[in-house]
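Sample entry (289 residues):
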Amino acid sequence: MLGQDVLAVLKASGIEAVGLRRADLDITDPAAVRAAVEDVAVVVNCAAWTDVDGAETAEEAATAVNGTGVRVLAEACADAHVRLLHVSTDYVLPGDASQPYREDTATGPVNAYGRSKLVGEQAVTELLPQDGYVVRTAWLYGEHGPNFVATMLKLAAQRDTLDVVDDQHGQPTWSYALARRLVELGQAALKGRAMGGIYHGTASGRTTWMGLARETYRLSGLDPERIRPTTSEAFVRPAVRPAFSVLAHDRWDEAAMAPLADWREQLAEALATPGFAALAAQARDGATG
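Predicted structure, serialized as tokens:
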């Protein structure tokens, strides 16, 4: 999802880029990774194990991709003097705060997925203190992969009401908006305007999953009252979810960049794209059929 959007932004910007899928490159293979990063200026790593619940019973496999593979990539980039932009997650944080997490807040993941991603973060900051950029994101949705917004629209055509969790707080972030920011950050890095380290690539503002679902319905011409609030206890899952995933955006000031737009603004722009517009139309047809 994010990788496709990054490539689309690069193409639209006239920047030459090569996109490598999992079948094209095993990031745990040092020789293959070293060959892949030769003769490039910036590497954007969107590869990840993203099955949060699955990681609970396969933490070693998740860490091989999210941790060991990232270390292999960071080592290759360090040797080749290549800048690395690595996408990470809010799940490296404990999720028990009441104020937005700053970039320098102590980590403390509460599940296996978060632990695996933290291993990757640590590899980048250790091996590439100047040329490594860790960009944490959260609640990501987009046209090119399974995600919460798409699921809500699909279910709207099938059910009259939906119960959605209202006690988890975060920042819904459109993958294309994050892709634009990653490209901007890469350009700033090449020009020496952005220092390495941790950045928070999430939308401004905050809401809950219920708030996101209702706003999705409202913007799509559906009745938001069809979304009913419930608690996390009603949806017990193998992996614990952080209750508070709101991130601060202080470091963008250092790179002379504004934080990403408010989540509502991003959502409105996303829902106007062909893929989401088609889902919304189907949802409206289902609601009136």
